[in-house]
Amino acid sequence: MLVALVVLILIVCLLLALVVLAQNPKGGGISSQFGAGGAANLMGVKRTGDLLEKLTWGFAIALIVLSLGTHMISGSEGPARSINQQRAQQVKLPASPAPAPGATAPATAPATPQ
Question: Is the whole model's pTM more than 0.85, yes or no?
């Protein structure tokens, strides 16, 4: 289920990027250069702009809803841990550091009462 939602998020992101690029900002956009001008003549400039704006809002809302859905699904499994965190929890540190080979143990002076 999680994989399906991630695939849907990727598709929505791609479609959202294409719709945003196709919009006509103040000075000509991609829509007039790649044949969307024909669609503008067919439907009218105002109707094409409205359609692209509605698609942008729809894809943005879908992206938010799908993102929250993936969080809800993956959040129910407990805190996500990376592989590094799992390995760090499994590794046991030694109680005291082992002396290096060939090194002498530090000498301790006998305590003298005063």
Answer: no
